[in-house]
Every structure is written in C-alpha cells, then in structure tokens.
Amino acid sequence: MRPDFPLDTLRGLDEFSHLIVTWRFHLGSDADLHLGARSPRNDPTWEPTGTFVHRNHRRPNRMATSFPRLLKVEGRDLHVTDLDAVAGTPIYDLAPYFEEMGPRGPVTAPAWPAAMLANYWEPAANRPE
C-alpha cells in the first residue's frame, strides 16, 4: 500500500476473509504476447482456445485478478495466502470480496481448467510431473 495513504483506507478490511487483488504480470514481455488460439499449457490433448480464455502473461495488457485469503492486517501490511503472483508484482487495486457480488446462477466451464489446475495450490515439489 502506498505510504501516503492514511491507515483509515484499510479500516474494516480485517473483517473479510478474502480480497480481490488486481495485479500485472510484470515479468512478461511484448515478445511473449500471443494473440490467437492455442492449446492450454501447449498440451495438444486440449483444444486450442483464444487469448482471452487463458489466464496468463501472454495477454495484451498482462493484467490479472486473484482472490487471496486475508490472514491479517498489520498497519499498511496485508498478510495473505493464495495470491498467485511472484514477489515484487505491482498491485494496482484491492477490495474485499463480497460473496453477494460473485457469479449469479450456475457457473459452467469446460473440463480442461479443472484438469489443468487440479494441483495448482500444491507446492511445486509435491506436483506430479
């Protein structure tokens, strides 16, 4: 958080379990931009899908949104877990997650995201190769 923001900007945030964090894939480059369809994780067993179906650094603006669990607030320091960004990643915005503003009605998706992300939150050492 910017040091010039008053601490009051975080007042009450500690009452929420999760945040919405908007950040940027700052280590990506324009050379790695991919506009068009490709197989998720370049796995040919999954049908090619377009740029805006993927959630990775190959997007034109390299922006991302995560929903980390808020562990505690200490002054301007927010302690979170499950923020899938590397250390030093620029954070552009954050807000508490309101369940009432989540998706309405049934949520549908093809099978490949669940298969691809089955072990996403496991430490890299524990993931199957």
From TrEMBL:
Keywords: Methyltransferase, S-adenosyl-L-methionine, Transferase. Gene3D superfamilies: YaeB-like. Its EC number is 2.1.1.-. It is an enzyme of class 2 (transferase). InterPro entries: TrmO-like_N, YaeB-like, YaeB-like_sf, YaeB_N_sf. PROSITE patterns: TSAA_2 (PS51668). One of its GO terms (biological process) is methylation. GO terms for molecular function: methyltransferase activity. Residues 1-106 form the TsaA-like domain. PANTHER family: TRNA (ADENINE(37)-N6)-METHYLTRANSFERASE (PTHR12818). Belongs to the tRNA methyltransferase O family. This is TrmO family methyltransferase. It comes from Streptomyces flavotricini.
